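Chapter summary example.
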Amino acid sequence: MERETVLKTVRQYSAKPIPEEEMARLLEIAGDCQKVKTYVYARYGGIGGLPLLYPGNAVQNEMTASGLRQQLGLPSVYFHLAVREALSDIRSRWTATKQAVRERADKNENFTDQERHYLRFVLRFDSVLGAVLRLRVPELAGEPGKTLSELEGCVDACRLQGYLRRQVRKFHARPSPGRETGFSASERAFRYGDHGIYLTTKESRRRLFIPLTDNNRYERQIRILPFPEEGRVEIRALVERAVRVKKGYGGRVGIALGIQVMLTTHWGSRYGEEAGVYHFACADYIREQARVRGKNRSLGGRPGREKYKRKKRRLEERLHSYINRELNRFLETEQPGEVYLARPGAPQAGKWGKRENNRTTLWQRGYIRRRLIEKCRERGIEVVEVPGGGLRGRCSRCGGEGMEEKGQFYCPACGHREDVKANRAGNALRRGTAPGAGRETE
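The structure predicted for these 442 residues follows.
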C-alpha cells in the first residue's frame, strides 16, 4: 500500500555575500526569463491563444522556432521553463475568467435552465469558447458535438454567444510579469558540489558557484531568487514528503482563531497568547510608516524604502516564527485526529478607531489557516472547515441564544458560561459533527 504524501517547499540559502558581478549575471538571466514570459503573455494571453493552451506543445514549438532564445542568448534550461510558467499563468487566468462568467450566468434571473446549461457547456470546452469569442461557428466531434447541436436548437445561441463575449471582455485580462526577480531552473541547469551549487550561465561552458549553508541536494526543478540589495540568494524546491501518522493521535477538536489569542480549543485551551503583541507591533509599524511617507510626499520629499522593507520583513518573520511554534505546540499537545475550524469572516473595519481598524485589516488569519492545514496534512490529521456565520451568540452546549460581555459567553437557557472563543470553537465542533452538516474537508 502506497503511503500518502504531501508537497512541501524547502529552502536553501547562500552562505556568503554574492559578489556584484555574479549577482549581475543572475539578474540578467532573471530579466531574460521575464522578457520571455512577457512575450508569451502578449502573444498567447488573448482569445486567439485559447485553443493552443492545452497541452501547450504548439506554443512550445512556435516559441522554439521564433528565434527569441537565440536573440537573448538564454540557455534552453531556462527558456523552456519560462515558457511553461507563462502558459500556466495564462491557464490560471482563463480558469478564473470562466469561473467568474459561470457565476454571473448562474445568478442571472433572465436565463432559463436550458440557457444556463448551454452557457456552462460552451465554457467547458476551450475550442468551442475560442470559436465563439472569435465569431466563428463552434464545432465539436463525437457525442459532445451532438449535445452542442441539440442545445443550440433549444436556445437563442446568437444572443447567448454575444453575452459570453461581453462577459469575457469584462473579466479577462492578460497576465503581467510582476516584479519578482526569480527564475526557474531544470535539473540539467545545475549540479551540487563543494558545499554549494553550480548554475548554468549565459556564457558557454561556464557555471556560477554559490556556496550554501547546507549540503542538501535536490534532483528536481528549483527556483532561484536573488536579492541584490542584500547580496544573497535563496533557492526553493518542491519536494514530496510522506505523511507521518503518529500513534496516539485521535479524537475531535474544535478551534477558533483570534487576533489577541491565536487559537482556542472547545475546552478552553489557549495557544498563541502573545500573538497579539507580535501582530500589533507589525501592524502599528506599517501604519506609522504609511503616515510618515504621506507626510514626506506632501513636503516634496522622496523617502527611501529599503530600511522600511528590512524592518517590516523582520517583524513579519518574527510573527510567522511565533505562529508556527505555537501551531506545533497545539498539535503535539492535543494530538487530534480531526480538527474542526470555524472559518473566520472578512475583517470588518469601521467599528472602532483607525488604529484598531488597521490592526484588524492586517490580521494574518490566512497565513495561520494555511500553515495549520499544511502541518495537519504532514501528520495525517483531517482539517474540517465549517461556515462561521451564526456561531457567535449561540450556546455550544444547548444551541440556545446567549449573550457576550467582556470576553465571556453566558446562556440564560442552560446556565452555561465560558470564554467567547471557546464557545465559538465548541459551536464549530457541534456544527461540523452534526448529521448532514455542510463542511469542507482539507
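To summarize the output: The first helix runs from residue 20 to 44.
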